[in-house]
Amino acid sequence: MISEDARTEEMKKTIYLDNGATTKVDPKVVEEMLPYFTEFYGNPSSIYSFSEKPEEAVGKARTIIAKRINADPKEIIFTSGGSETDNLALRGAAYAAKKHKNKSHIITSNIEHPAILNTCKALENQGFRVTYLDVDNKGFIDIKKLESAITENTFLVSIMHANNEIGTIQDIQAIGELCKSKGILFHTDAAQSFTKTDIDVKKMDIDLMSLASHKIHGPKGVGALYLKKGVDIINLITGGHQERDIRAGTENVPGIAGFGKAVELATPAHIDKMKILRAKLIKGIEDNISNTKLNGPKGDSRLCNNVNFAFRYVEGEGILLHLDEKGICVSTGSACSSKSLKPSHVLIAISLPADVAHGCIRFTLSRFTTEEEIEHTIKCVREVIEELRKMSPLTPKEDI
Ligand SMILES: *Cc1c(COP(=O)(O)O)cnc(C)c1O
After folding, report:
1. How confident is the model at residue 396 (pLDDT cuts 50, 70, 90)?
2. CA 307, CA 279: separation in Å to the nearest integer?
3. Which residues line ligand 1 (CB under 6 A)?
4. Which protein residue has the closest C-alpha to ligand 1 atom 5?
C-alpha cells in the first residue's frame, strides 16, 4: 500500500471508478471523429462525391462492429444509444407482433436496466403481458423457469447479457437456444458486456441486441441495434430512408466513426488487465474491512470490470460522498434513482435485506484504471468505512 506522500500531483486527480455509468472517450477515438465535424461534414445520403468520406466512415464502423459480433454489416442499425436501442428492439418487435393473432406476451427479468423495465411497463399499458423472471442470489435467471414461463402467446424474450450493477453474465447461449427451439425472438441488452466478453450472435442464437458506444470509451449519444436478417420490427422514428428504413434521421457520422474506433481499440488484453485489478480490489476490501460481502458472482461469470460490495452498518450514499471528497467516483446501489431512498431493484432482486442493500457501493474499472489507483482506493474505502461505522448507531460495539 502506498503512503499519502507518495501520491503524486498527477494522482491527486480524480480516480474514476464509475465506468459502468459512462467512460472516458479514448483520445484516439476523438482523433478519429474530428475530421467529420469540420472537414468531411457532408450528409452521407447525398449523391455528390463530397459525401463519400462520411458515407465510408459509417460503412467502416458498421463493418467493424458487425465483425466483432459475427454479424453481417447489413444487420447493424445505428441509433442514439442504449436506451433508444432497447426501445427500438422491444417496441419494434412488439408492434410487429400485433400482425399475428395472440402474440402478446413478453418475458424479461427483474434485474434489467430501466430502459428495458420501463419500456416493458409502457408495453403493458398498451395491452401486452410481461413476465418478469426473478433471479437467484447471484443474479442468474433459471433457464427452467424461463422455459415454463413460455406460452403460445410469447413472441419475445429479453434478458440482459451482463448486469450493470452486480456484473452477472447470463448464459445467453442457453437462452438463445431455448428461444430458437420455441420459435420466439431473443433480445439481449449487451451495453455492458460488448467488447468486455465475447459475443457471437450466430453461436448464441441472438435475434436482436443492444449496444452503446459510451460504455466502451466511445462518444455518448451513439448506439447500435443488431437486427438479425429476416427479423421483422416496426420502426419508431419515421422519416428518411436511413438505416434500411428502420431508423430515420441523418446519421451521427462523427459519433458513429468514434464508436467504430472504440470497438477497434478494445482488445482481449484489456479484459485481462481489468480482471487483475478487479481481483486486487476485491481482495483488498475483503482483507482490510470486516463485515463486507461481494454482491454478484465470482470468476468468469462476472463482468471483468465490476466490483459491488455491501458494507454492513453504513449507508451507501454516505460512503459515496466521503469517497467523493477524496476524489474517488463510485456509485451506490441506487445509481439510477439516486434521489430516491428506495434501494436498487437489482439488489432487492438478489434478496439482500433492505438495510444491507442501502449500504452497497459499485466500483467499475476501465482499461485506463491503474494499480496505484486501486491501492489508493482500498486505503480510502477502509478509512471511510471505519469513520462512518464509528458514527453509525447500527454498528455493534465489537465491530468498531
Ligand atoms: C448504459 C446502459 C443502457 C443505456 O444506454 P444509454 O446509451 O445511456 O442510453 C442500457 N442498458 C444497459 C445495460 C446499460 O448499461
Report:
1. confident
2. 9
3. 81-83, 86, 113, 115, 160, 164, 189, 191-192, 212, 214-215, 223
4. 82
